[in-house]
Amino acid sequence: MLNMERIAIVDLETTGMDPLRDRITEVAVILLDDGQEVARWQTLVNPLVGIPAQIQSITGITPAMVRGAPSFDQIAEFLVEKIKGRIFVAHNARFDYGFIKQGLTRAGLSFTADVLCSVRLSRRLEPQHASHSLDSLIERHRLHTEYRHRAMGDAELVVQLLNVLQRRHGHEAFNAAKHRILKTPSLPPHLPIDALDSIPDCPGVYVFYGVNEQPLYIGKSINLRERVRSHFSNDYRNANDARLSAEIRRIQTHVCAGEFGALLLEANWIRERLPTLNKALRKNEQWVVVDTTGQIVPMAQLNSSQLPGFFGPFSSKRGAKSVLEGLAAEYQLCWTGLGLEKREGACFGFQLKKCAGLCVGLEASSSHQARLSQGLAKWEIPRFAFAGGAFVHEHSVLTGDRFHVFYDWCFVGTYTSKEQIPKTPPPTDQLSFEPSVFRLLSKVDLQPLEVLVT
Ligand SMILES: [Zn+2]
Q1: Are 379 and 323 within 8 A, CB to CB?
Q2: Distance (Å, whole) CA 87 – CA 100
Q3: 0.85 cut: is pTM over it?
Q4: Distance of CA 309 from the midpoint of ligand 1 (Å)
Q5: N or C: which end of the chain has fewer CB within 10 A?
């Protein structure tokens, strides 16, 4: 049977298909240790909403039946105790796992499991069959239950399916298919055995440390668990991940309220801690901006309050040049005028009939400048519209409120309550303009800090 393994087979009945909108009406769980059933448990659940008539007719679960049943909140803690630390197995597991996760999140509980979908397992082992629905499998494998379409009946069918598949295909093929689906990561040699188990599946930032606590790599994800484990899954290994696997000694994770907070923290930590691999990946980065006349200026020469009115930012001189070359072609601008080449007389563009002739006196510098300004407009770094600072708000059940505060396009800090936010802006020389943060800010909803602080 399923050797040395603790699994929880879960089946749910619900009021519909959408884990956000619909609710659970019945839960059944069968626990197996090394293939032996050690416990089973089921309960009807009061969804606290109506049950559509067509769903009542499929499951046989009526409003009258669930009226006296506990709500999901009331069984949530007990359910987590039953299934935590086990492989979560279900037919169409995304459905059941999604409903359970949503229900537990609403109840204020966090829960993470490795998920094994028995549809995918069946499809992987028996790809010759088109359908892997429970009805097809019942017929194909002569499975049997008295209670089809009720949670415990369907859970029993999944247990039978696992047994049949393992018997038919043998332990080795069965386990290989299972590991492919679970993407079981291979544990890097110097990590403790449980290092990859407890990583939460929520947004956040992770740090891989090598010997002597040297940061090797910092990354972010909307799903820490999946992302961290993907570094060590055999399927997706690249040269960097192979190196990380050999050198890693410790993993640190930090849970964030959302993707934006994770991006900010990642950018900050990379700047502060200079992890070896991130540094290598960014070694060609040297941020520049372009001034109103098209000249390239290294950003290191400017402080954040000087940046509005410049154009960019671009991650390298080369990147800025290629943008200027594009503009030159589009707007008939002059190559020597833009500083793209240094020569006397007709520029390279003029020889190709692409320069309107600034270099040979055929056009006035004012009209050249007017077209350049037009072309650069979409790259302009605007003045920061919030003199008193601005913030972005994020909230998650796990972390509570997060207020990310900005002055002059610069990230100042993340605070857990509005009382924590400093009343006065930091000195200009302490503000650091991060191009990646600037780019993020154009995509989020900034609000004036006055709204919070007063
Ligand atoms: Zn020219």
Answers
A1: yes
A2: 14
A3: no
A4: 25
A5: C
Given a contact cutoff of 8 angstroms between Cβ atoms, the answer to whether 421 and 403 are in contact is yes
Going from the Cα of 351 to the center of ligand 1, the distance in angstroms, rounded, reads 8
Which residues place a Cβ less than 5 A from the ion ligand 1?
334, 347, 350, 355, 359
Cα(100)–Cα(84) distance, rounded to whole angstroms? Answer: 12
Three-class SS of residue 336?
Answer: coil
Q: Which of 63, 11, 71 is CA-nearest to residue 45? A: 71
Q: Distance, CA 374 to ligand 1 centroid (Å)?
A: 18
Give residue 286 CA to ligand 1 midpoint distance, Å: 28
Q: Which amino acid is at 98?
A: G
Which of 128-137, 182-191, 244-253 is predicted least confidently? 182-191
Tell the burial category of 300 from Cβ atoms under 10 Å away from its Cβ (0-12, 13-18, 19+): exposed
Q: What is the pLDDT of residue 454?
A: 61
Per-residue CA distances from 196 to 113, 206, 288 (Å): 12, 12, 40
Q: Nearest to residue 116, comparing CAs of 126, 124, 108? A: 124
Asked if 319 contacts 310 with a C-beta cutoff of 8 angstroms, the reply is: no
pLDDT at 237: 56
Structure tokens at 432: 């650091």
DSSP secondary structure, 341-355, as one string: ---SSS-HHHHTT-S
Q: Which tokens hold the place of 376?
A: 């650069």
Interval between CA 367 and ligand 1 midpoint (Å): 13
From the CA of 350, how far away is ligand 1's center (Å)? Answer: 5
